[in-house]
Design goal:
The chain has a six-stranded mixed β-sheet with strand order 2-3-1-6-7-8, sandwiched between helices. The protein has a two-stranded antiparallel sheet with strand order 4-5. α13 links the parallel β6 and β7. The longest helix is centred in the middle third of the chain and has 36 residues. The C terminus is likely disordered. It is built from 13 helices and eight strands. By secondary structure, the chain is α+β, with helices and mostly antiparallel strands.
Length: 399
């Protein structure tokens, strides 16, 4: 009766994982950009096949029911780890295959055939290692969310469950899996962990979908930086932050000089390259936590906490310096892209985006009136901060 119960549990487990595999494949089929779903579909499919082969023990050769069955499951774990890495845009690692490699090495040892307790201990030990690797991969991404916390806790539970099974197999060696007294409990707990994983995974898919939609709404498709909506969201977060050090928020508004002549002389495709070129350089010159956005056309803005106006001007100078030293290379032709900058600051508790934008726009107009490729602050009266342009050394389109 116990054997029948274990076989039934294994078949149910196989059916459940096969269903999840199909659902994940459909998710990928409807959204090919979500490639992590395809990796997870393959993972669940292999785990389903492995459980089914284990349930057929006695009806198929032991090579299939033991060695191949566990190998399929551990290969599924490697695909699952790859899926999480792809989701977080991280490179898959060779050590994802470590549990599978240990299982194969164990299968080649003489004790593997002679000892059922060794086979059970090795199977649970490699599974525990696979779950711990899942915890490591989730932490490697450095991202936090409720679904990720739930998945981490489930993986810890599954790893602990397998380590307990390993210990019991060593302390009280069974003849084989079906005479293993802890097997029924391990399967039921494992099936519960599977259900919890599927629920938490569904929540993770929802979170990723919402984040993707949010990025779509808040991101400029040409340059990949924030758009006006995204800048407003980040500004609200920055202004509402409980940290009041630095005490000011600075707004830097950039306008690419003579951009119309770039389009006229080199074509709109080159103009798009110039926009992306500037966005890449400017974003790389900012600090983590600063916000950078394309406002429209050739106009960009950076929003950042600063200790004073001089710090904001220094950031603008850094971006201008990086831009001057890195001309745009189009088919071997160097095009010097420059930008005029307007800078303003406000105390963080009372700052508003509209006020900062208006003040920076006024400073930007003053910079353009000065001859472009310079930095002006919001105060255009005598004594206003100004940074004059440096001589051009590359092909720079002029009006």
């Amino acid at each position: 009766m116990a054997v029948l119960d274990l076989v039934t549990a294994l078949v149910l487990w196989s059916s459940a994982t096969a269903t999840v595999a199909v659902v994940l494949f459909v998710v990928w089929w409807r959204n090919r950009e979500f490639s992590a779903s395809l990796w997870w579909s393959g993972a669940f499919a292999l785990m389903s096949a492995g459980r089914l082969l284990l349930a057929l023990r006695g009806q198929v050769p032991d090579l299939l029911a033991i060695e191949v069955a566990i190998a399929l499951s551990l290969t599924g774990f490697a695909l699952s780890l790859t899926g999480f890495s792809v989701l977080d845009r991280l490179r898959p690692r060779p050590w994802f295959l470590l549990p599978l490699a240990l299982w194969i090495l164990g299968c080649l040892t003489p004790v593997f055939t002679a000892s059922g307790s060794f086979r059970i201990a090795l199977a649970h030990g490699t599974a525990a290692l696979a779950y711990l690797l899942h915890v490591a991969v989730l932490r490697r991404a450095g991202r936090r969310s409720p679904a990720r916390r739930w998945l981490t806790q489930i993986f810890w539970f599954a790893a602990g469950l397998n380590l307990i099974s390993l210990s019991l197999a060593v302390l009280s060696p069974p003849a084989d899996f079906f005479s293993y007294r802890f097997a029924a409990f391990a399967l039921i707990a494992g099936l519960a962990a599977l259900v919890a994983t599927v629920i938490a995974g569904a929540c993770l898919l929802i979170e990723e979908t919402e984040q993707g939609l949010r990025l779509l709404v808040e991101t400029d498709p040409l340059t990949g930086v924030l758009n006006r909506r995204g800048l407003a969201q980040h500004f609200d977060t920055m202004a509402a932050s409980s940290r009041r050090d630095p005490p000011l928020i600075a707004m830097l508004v950039f306008d690419l000089d003579h951009f119309k002549s770039v389009n006229d002389r080199h074509g709109h495709q080159t103009g798009d390259l110039a926009l992306a070129h500037f966005a890449r350089i400017a974003a790389a010159s900012l600090r983590e936590g600063d916000a950078f956005a394309r406002l429209g056309g050739e106009e960009f803005a950076a929003c950042l906490p600063v200790a004073g106006l001089a710090e904001a001007v220094a950031v603008a100078e850094r971006i201008q310096g990086a831009l001057r030293s890195t001309p745009l290379n189009v088919a071997g032709r160097l095009i010097n892209v420059t930008a005029s900058v307007g800078v303003s600051t406000r105390p963080r508790p009372t700052a508003t985006l509209d006020e900062l934008m208006a003040a920076s726009d006024r400073a930007l107009y003053a910079a353009k009136a000065r001859g472009r490729d310079c930095i002006m602050t919001e105060d255009n009266a005598p004594g206003a901060t100004e940074r004059h342009p440096r001589p051009r050394t590359h092909d720079a389109p002029q009006k």
